[in-house]
Amino acid sequence: MAGEPQADCLFCKIVAGEIPATIVRETPTTLAFRDINPQAPTHVLVIPRVHYPDAAALAAADPGAVVDVLREAGEVAAQEKVDGSGYRVVFNTGPGAGQTVFHAHAHVLGGRDLQRLV
Fold it and tell me: Does residue 116 have a pLDDT over 90?
């Protein structure tokens, strides 16, 4: 059922503490951890603790969770000290956009020039 933890979801397992991650922030509704394949010096994933397959499904079902994820993305950027120089928040939605884990999540990228990164 949407919103409920999924047994086969990597990020649900991280939320449950079954799989380790380098956690940088957590709130009652979100979890932020370092990407294992960083694309920039700062590359942190911010996920809702609830399971929805992508950002569009999350927004449709639980708009408040999207707000929480975006708020935490800003907090991560400040904590990682990339808020002053600039950072990017990316939601990949669907395999054609590069989404590989089907649990809604935002990538917070910074720490280098991102003008050429599409």
Answer: no
Residue 105 annotated in active site: yes
3-state secondary structure 37-105: CCCCCEEEEEEECCECCCHHHHHHHCHHHHHHHHHHHHHHHHHCCCCCCCEEEECCCCHHHCCCCCCCC
Name the pTM for this structure: 0.94
Active-site annotation holder among 43, 51, 103, 105: 105
Separation between Cα atoms, residue 103 and residue 99, nearest integer Å = 9
Tens-place pLDDT, residues 70-99: 999 999 999 999 999 999 999 999 999 999
